[in-house]
Amino acid sequence: MTSSIVRNVPHLTSGDEQFRSKFRSWALADLSYVDIREYLETKDLVLVPMASTEQHGPHLPLYTDTITAVEVSARISEHIGVLHTPPLWAGYSPQHMHEPGQGRGTITLRSSTLLNLMYDVARSLIHHGFDRIIFVNGHGSNTKVVDPVLRRLRYETGAMIGFVKPYMERYTGILEGLMENPPEETPGWHSSELETSQDMAWNADLVRMERAEDTRARIPDFLPDSFRKSDGAPDVEFEGYQYFSFPMDHHEFIDSGTIGNPMRATKEKGEEAFRRYSEHVARGVLELMDVPVKVHDREFVDRVM
Fold this sequence. Notes:
Layout: H1 14-23, H2 33-40, E1 45-50, H3 64-80, E2 83-84, H4 111-128, E3 132-137, H5 147-157, E4 160-164, H6 193-203, E5 227-228, E6 235-238, E7 241-245, H7 250-253, H8 267-288
Parallel strand pairs: 1-2, 1-3, 3-4
Antiparallel strand pairs: 5-6, 6-7
Helix pairs in contact: 3-6, 3-8, 4-5, 6-8
């Protein structure tokens, strides 16, 4: 699919090409400590993909959000020659648990657990010599709880701590013009056109389109009919305005888990979405690599608590 967006595409320098050829991977866990030391001689930035393992309707895998984080991170690494860690594959997903015994498969972390996990991963990386940690997030609900740990890491260590969200829910952003669904068909929401397309680009065998459903969110039964809801956000509409929000479980406003119309999804759209996101974020990361950073607290002293 041809993009209407024209940008300068980041690319590896000759030194990056030599590193990639020598060590064969930008994945931190594929390397030995000898390789890590050599990388840190010239660069101090690492990407940390994070998302969730949660139900994504009858036709998409539980890994859907993590696919976004992993694929975008890997592509950024290939574009500009930076390392990425293994993914933090569980996130804050209490709304996707459904009733006990229903077999939805979601694995959720309590907010405190997620924050502690992010903290320990980042402090470990800072301990070893990384000064710039960029979390690449693929799951919307993680954004509700992460601010305290991002600030704590920055205040305690002086490291550059970033958090990037390369996906579409209400915000279309860089994917303008790519999706065919109109806004009322919520193309960027749960298991709709975008996520289905991206999963097709990742591994089409995991997408079960014979099970796909075109479904819309509804107002939960515990709210009166004078309130309205059309997507997966916690805020709802009343008298045409969105000032109210409520803690709602996903099955209270959409039983299937699919919000929108996934029928227009294609592998080509998913590939183009991954391309746009990864090139955009790669350009931003390149800018961040030249910003002065001084870490003042590197040792991870509390690593056994």
